[in-house]
Design a protein that fits this description.
The chain is of the alpha+beta class and 414 residues long. It contains 14 helices and 8 strands. Strands 1, 2, 3, 4, 5, 6, 7 and 8 form an 8-stranded mixed sheet that branches.
């Protein structure tokens, strides 16, 4: 098994989809090398014709037929496959590789059969070189190297036995070399395929873990901020000229928490905040955080939008209505304030996207000095709303450290 991945005894993955994905990726990864290898085989097979010149002219004809009439067309088909369209290459490259491997080996065996005594040794050497090189190129699966190489190794030994030019001693020595080469080819191809499949599984695990990490990061941070953090450790601090900050607090939740079990408490709070999250997505706000039974969001960051005050106000009203449906015993107090903020990420091991500035403090005060079931807004938010939403007449609230401050309540939308 490759890192826990179920495999057949031939090393292929049990899951057909996984096997297809592996072979597709394998072929695309080695495509350039495949082309080079096939072209190199053409050159080497053609150049080895020089060995045929050692034979008598009358004996060269069958050797040329084998070399250029039988073997070379198959090698050239391998070259064409390497340059074929992707759909054809992806489907056939591996089968063509095995075919070329088999035909070149069979060609050297045929040369042993027809070659005179002074060429037999060269042909056997070509067989040994081919069987080892074919495994070393890592272009064929180990099962093909073993199956094709094993059958043709036996055929080569038989050819040596029946050849009139080889003595008993020659047969024993050459057969030993053939078996050694076959064993080496099986070991080389097996280890290479195991390593390649292990890398495939590990890369898949790494991709899944990376996707999981990115998903978690995007759940914690705005997508644009998460993308910036993926590029490496950076200080993210943006001066945003104008946003609308929303603070909301559940009135009556403390008493409810004392009357129910912890499991029910968390389940009900999760239901409320999940509904608020859905509203934030619908209205285009960015959730910043929850603090106990309080909820904070912003319109206009990390992406600027001219209607930030309107969208924040509409979400605030929708939150109040939604809470009435989910938890009639509770009430929501909401505060809005508009103005500049500093937005950024803090933390080294646990990142948090947050807002700072007077606007944030004012929005918090609008909420804490508000009325359950109402949305209280500051002067700047009132100006930005214009006549889009109904707003009650102004009133003043006393804020510690600020003094008398004009505020407004949103009326119910018509």
């Amino acid at each position: 098994m490759a890192a826990g991945e179920p495999q057949h005894w031939t090393l292929r993955f049990v899951d057909p989809e996984r096997e297809r994905a592996f072979m597709r990726g394998y072929g695309r990864e080695v495509r350039i090398f495949y082309r080079i290898a096939m072209l190199a085989i053409v050159v080497l097979w053609t150049a080895s014709v020089g060995l045929d010149l050692a034979a008598h002219p009358d004996a060269r004809v069958p050797m040329y037929v084998i070399r250029f009439g039988v073997v070379m067309p198959v090698i050239l088909f391998g070259v064409v496959t390497g340059f074929a369209p992707a759909w054809f290459y992806d489907r056939w490259w591996h089968r063509v590789t095995a075919l070329v491997y088999a035909v070149v080996l069979a060609g050297t065996i045929a040369l042993v059969v027809v070659a005179p005594a002074n060429v037999v040794a060269y042909a056997v050497g070509g067989f040994l070189l081919t069987i080892l090189t074919g495994a070393g190129l890592d272009l064929a699966r180990a099962v093909w190297i073993t199956f094709v190489g094993g059958i043709l190794a036996v055929a080569m030994i038989i050819a040596l036995i029946v050849s009139p030019w080889t003595s008993t001693r020659d047969v024993m020595v050459e057969s030993l070399w053939v078996l050694v080469a076959l064993s080496g080819a099986i070991i080389i191809s097996g280890r290479a395929e195991i390593a390649r499949r292990l890398r495939f599984v590990q890369e898949g695990m790494l991709k899944r873990e990376r996707a999981r990490t990115e998903a978690l990061l995007q759940n914690m941070l705005p997508a644009s901020i998460a993308a910036r953090l993926k590029d490496g450790p950076v200080v993210i601090a943006d001066a945003v000229p104008e946003v609308t900050v929303l603070f909301a607090d559940l009135k009556g939740f403390t008493g409810l928490a004392a009357a129910i079990t912890p499991e029910e408490l968390i389940a009900r709070l999760d239901g409320v905040f999940s509904a608020f999250d859905e509203l934030a997505q619908t209205h285009g706000l960015e959730k910043i955080k929850t603090m106990g039974d309080a909820y904070m969001a912003v319109a206009g960051a990390p992406f600027a939008r001219p209607d930030h005050a309107v969208t924040a106000a509409r979400m605030a009203l929708a939150m109040i209505e939604r809470l009435r449906d989910l938890e009639p015993a509770l009430a929501l107090r909401v505060g809005l304030a508009s103005g500049p903020v500093v937005a950024g990420v803090i933390g080294r091991t646990k990142h948090s996207y947050d807002l700072w500035g007077a606007t944030v403090n004012l929005a918090s005060r609008m909420e804490s000095h508000g009325v359950p079931g109402r949305v209280q807004i500051d002067q700047r938010t009132r100006e930005l709303l214009g006549d889009v939403l109904p707003v009650d007449p102004p009133h003043e609230i006393e804020l510690k450290g600020i003094g008398a401050t004009r505020a407004y309540f949103l009326g119910a939308p018509s």
